[in-house]
Amino acid sequence: MTNRNKRLFGEIVKDVQNDENSPTQRRTVPSHLLDRTNRLSEINSGDIIEKVHRLVNPEQCRMWEGHNRRYDLLNEQRCDDLIKGFKSQGKQELPAIVRALKDDQNYDYEVICGARRHWTVDWLRNHNYPQFKFLIEVRELTDEEAFRLSDIENRDKEDISDYERALDYKLALERYYKKQKDMAERLVMTETRLSRYLDLASMPQEIVACYADPTHIKISHWVELKKLYQSPKTRGDLMDIASEIAQNQNKAKDESGTIFDSQQVFRQLMKAANQRRRNRTHYLGEYYTSSGNKLLTIQRNGRQGFLIHILANSGADTDEIISVCNQSIREHIKN
Q1: What per-residue confidence (pLDDT) applies to 12?
Q2: What are the ParB-like N-terminal domain coordinates in residue numbering (predicted)?
């Protein structure tokens, strides 16, 4: 509200209040005018904040590049509650928060909060409900303010995943904050909790690819998988298994086969990597023939003994076998 309007409203309120002291005037002032005057007085004092909502076509809006939801993963299933609610109410009740765009030839607004609402209205308009429009509230926000507003709105919602939030926090830390501590304070979040999200964002893409839907990745998954990934003894096995699972998932998608859910993927990764580690025999040495075939292995047998295992199908003759056996003994058995 401009200063001029505030002064105008103030004068109106003052005049009406003065008039109320006159019995004659009190009788002649209509009740609806008094109600309006009281409302203007509250607005002028700051007790009421008026917001302007607009109804626009969803085609006029695009997602803000810093939006914390994967718009490309939205579908009828993920927006089912909104679709039913909009149909029941006949309209969108809660406005999306947007910013006005300047010098953009294709769009008028960018959506800060309300990706699912935008998707739902667009879906309804394309499925026999052309009367629906996108309800928006235009605000002036910096990028950092937009990030925090989006985070606050979606933080307690179950339909936005740990992984989506993790990527959002990682990007925000790089763009808006100097230190992780500063970011935690602005978000009113413990550093420990923020660290867990940032850690999840570092999950290797080879493991992310195992999940048919990355929005199903949870912090608890990476807490356990990270232990296998960080250990030199199990990292190779984990990544090998991840590659196999990802290939099977893609094949299942292409052939309309059975796709593993997030918990099944997690259990497979943990079980297979640990099983391979247990099954792998620790050899002190492996020896090969001159043609490259494995000839024998040597491993510890108890505290004071060694076991030499000669492969019968190596293709080596007797002289080569004896020579390699002598070599393994000299290298591992001390006098």
Answers
A1: 45
A2: 54-155
